[in-house]
Amino acid sequence: MSSMLITEAGEGLFHARLNRPEAHNALNTALLQALSEAFARADDDPSIRVILISGTGEHFAAGADINEIADKTEAEGADDVRKTYWRQLQSVRKPVIAAVEGYCLGGGCELALSADLCVAADDASFGQPEIRLGLIPGAGGLQRLADRLGKARAMRLALLGERISGATAYDWGLVSHRADRGEAVTTARSLAEKLVKAAPLAVEASKAAVLKATEDRLNDGLDWERRAFERLLSSQDKIEGITAFREKRRPTFTGQ
Ligand code: HXC
């Protein structure tokens, strides 16, 4: 098991913790692979009833690893094994709970939005800031934001790259639960304890039923969003956006 991902299992709960605190737990390919494999194992393990995901350190995750995206082209994006990992993560049958403290941005936000329950610390920071890099999310972030928030609020996050606090995310219905700062994992664990005691077949069927009413109708949009993300990988604006991020300056975009 990679030390980028710390896992523990017991009493029906599988807990995975993203562990790249030096990069605000940015999801590089090795971490995404470890996470998707861990989720798949937990999903197939009859002793596990619930999966919990959180970050180590102060943050959940600040997105995909920008250093990996920097040189990636459209063709490489189309072939990217990361798509398989995302698909695996997002097709777990057992309930997944995300416990979010600190930054929950980009791919980190997409991961949290893919969970079935999400506990956000009041001062956590949610957003899809990809537009500032000349990109869009590619793992369904905009589909799920629009689905949960409606057009007006989704546009604020999508077009302006606005970040919202955990408290606002709760008020807007983006996440299912709120917690005081530092208490997200404790709150998530108490929810997990309830789910561990619930009827497993009914839990699995309930999850699938809700997803039929929500996720299933997003399928066209999910594919479209991924393709648009891939096309943008080869743009000059992406190169400028990521260069500016690294140089800690404002980007100048040209639409090419
Ligand atoms: C790689 C990252 C990173 C990221 C932060 N770091 N986010 N490295 N990928 N996504 C690194 C920084 O480079 C820095 O490394 C260290 O973590 C601490 O970050 P700072 O910027 O110094 O911290 P701070 O000033 O507190 O700002 C925090 C922040 C900022 C607001 C979260 O780091 C930020 O804006 N990060 C990028 C967020 C983002 O754009 N996410 C979307 C990524 S694209 P050094 O070595 O300098 O100390 C994406 C697409 C998904 O997610 C597509 C899915 C298919």
| DSSP strand count | 9
Molecules bound to protein: hexanoyl-coenzyme A
Task: Indicate the CATH class.
Answer: Alpha Beta
The CATH homologous superfamily name equals 2-enoyl-CoA Hydratase, Chain A, domain 1
Number of helices: 12
Give the class from helix and strand content and strand pairing.
alpha/beta
Global shape: globular
**Uncertain ranges:** none
Characterize the largest beta sheet: strand count, sense, and whether it forms a barrel: 6 strands, mixed
- What portion of the residues fall into strands of 2 or more residues? 15-25%
CATH topology label: 2-enoyl-CoA Hydratase, Chain A, domain 1
> What is the total domain count?
1
CATH architecture field: Alpha-Beta Complex
Compressed to H and E, one letter per element, the order equals: EEHEHHHEEHEEHHEHEHHHH
Q: What's the Cα radius of gyration?
A: 17 Å
What average pLDDT do the residues reach? 97
The helix content, as a percent range, equals 40-55%
Distance between the termini: 41 Å
Order of strands, widest sheet: 1-2-3-4-6-9
Protein name: Enoyl-CoA hydratase
Organism: Saccharospirillum salsuginis
InterPro entries: ClpP/crotonase-like_dom_sf (IPR029045), Enoyl-CoA_hyd/isom_CS (IPR018376), Enoyl-CoA_hydra/iso (IPR001753), Enoyl-CoA_hydra_C (IPR014748)
Family: Belongs to the enoyl-CoA hydratase/isomerase family.
Short description:
The protein is α/β, with parallel strands linked by helices and 256 residues long. The protein contains twelve helices and nine strands. It has one domain: 2-enoyl-CoA Hydratase, Chain A, domain 1.
